[in-house]
Amino acid sequence: MSKGVLVNRLSGLYLGSGTCLESGIPSGIDQKVAATELDVRIETVLGDAQADPRHHGGPDRVLHHFPREHYGQYRRWDMMAQFKDAPAMGENISTVGLDENQVYIGDIIAIGDVELQVTQPRSPCFKLNHQFGHKEFAYAMQTSGLCGWFYRVLKPGHIFHDNGVSLIERRSDISVREAMAIYFASEFDASAYDRLASCEGLASSWVNSLQRRLATQKMEDWQMRLFGPQAD
User: Fold this and answer.
1) Within a 13 Å sphere around the CA of 52, how many CA atoms are in the beta-carbon half?
2) What is the dihedral of CA 148, 149, 154, 156, to 10 degrees?
3) What is the pLDDT of residues 133-156, one digit of tens each?
4) Does the structure show a pLDDT above 60 at 5?
5) What is the widest separation between alpha-carbon atoms in the chain?
6) pLDDT value at position 21?
7) pTM of the full predicted structure?
8) 46 Cβ partners below 8 Å, 6+ apart?
9) Domains and CATH numbers, the chain
């Protein structure tokens, strides 16, 4: 994709400072509300909170972008116990017309006067199962790749609802969708791991995980992350 406008106008902006308990575990996924603007700092969005800083937030995951049309697909797959729409994924940015096949790891993105870098796909966890009332929602996200992506902040500023999304520079040849497929493939693939780990801009947690796999020649167990403490 050439440089230039990817989306003319955002569908929504969201933030939230509240948290709640999901099966006794703190979560902020269902606490986001619509906002007219986001005050984006280098490591945070003013007024936005993360209930679990170890697995969410931090400099590589300051903003979560989720395509709004994915809600419709999950509804068509009958993955929701009741109707839910943005920002039920806990996203900060919602758009229509931009997905994981069009956005690449390391992409430098401009939204308003803010410059961002794409760092990783969203890694689904069992909290999504509780959020949408389906015990395999997280697994469906992992296998489908309809996950959204995270940004680190290169240049802070303000994002407004009527801003567009533009690509400034492409830094890798691995899309968010391909990164998801490589990272969560069922078979060990050292060459694919090495290729993904070498992507400029990839989140440090993903780089570390891939390097650990290469060193140990083993993949981590995803059962707890996908299905929670009650998983067999």
Assistant:
1) 14
2) 40
3) 999 999 999 999 999 999 999 999
4) yes
5) 48
6) 45
7) 0.93
8) 38, 39, 40
9) 4-172 (2.40.33.20)
